[in-house]
Amino acid sequence: MTPALLIHGGAGAATPSALQAERRSGLTAAFEAGWDILIQGGTALDAVVQATVTLEDHPLFNAGLGSCLTEDGTVEVDASLMDGSTFQTGAVGAAKHIKNAICLAREVMTDGRHVFLVGRGAERFAREHGLPQAAADELITPRQHQRWQALRLSSGQAQRSNSEPGTVGAVALDSSGRLAAATSTGGVFDKRAGRVGDSAVIGAGTYADSAMGACSATGDGEDIIRATLARTAVELLRGGKDPAQAARTALARLTRQTRGEAGLILLDPFGRRGVAYTTESMSVALRLGSGQAFRAEGRLVVRV
Ligand code: ASP
Question: What's the domain count of the chain?
Answer without folding.
Answer: 1
